[in-house]
Write a structure and sequence with these properties.
Layout: H1 2-12, H2 15-49, E1 60-63, E2 72-74, H3 76-109, H4 122-137
Antiparallel strand pairs: 1-2
Helix pairs in contact: 2-3
């Protein structure tokens, strides 16, 4: 049992698992922000443009309510709202990833170290040897 707990600890404390956990938590929070943006900022003007419609209220009654049972409805408005949420979240994530990739390309384009000077030509090497020989003779 102790060996299994030790293996689990090694697994859970690996960098990849922790990075993934942080990503999931931040992604969840980001999703809530974008959902609020869609529901509270973007959809009201769209609903106003299409005739003061609240998309989440759109439905088709398949069977009317009776005294004993509730109405059976096809809530396609809620589905449309979820599709809009998804598209806007996907677009926001796409733009964020695009921004991150652009930053990485700029960072990769910068040389880490200055390039080494070119090797001297054969003539330069020969002239340097001649100079050194002349210095020794003096």
């Amino acid at each position: 049992m102790a060996k299994i707990l030790q293996e689990f600890k090694q697994f859970a404390m690996r960098g990849n698992v922790i990075d993934m956990a942080v990503g999931v938590i931040i992604g969840g929070a980001f999703g809530k922000i974008v959902s609020s943006l869609v529901a509270d900022i973007i959809m009201p003007p769209i609903g106003l443009l299409v005739g003061n419609v609240n998309f989440t209220d759109l439905s088709i009654v398949l069977k009317k309510a009776t005294e004993d049972t509730a109405a059976v409805t096809l809530n396609y408005g809620n589905f449309l709202q979820q599709v809009f949420d998804f598209l806007i979240i996907a677009w926001a994530i796409f733009m964020f990833i695009k921004l991150v990739n652009m930053a990485k390309k700029k960072e990769e384009a910068k040389p880490a170290t200055p390039p080494a000077p070119p090797a001297p030509s054969k003539e330069e090497v020969l002239l340097t040897e001649i100079r050194d020989i002349l210095k020794e003779k003096k």
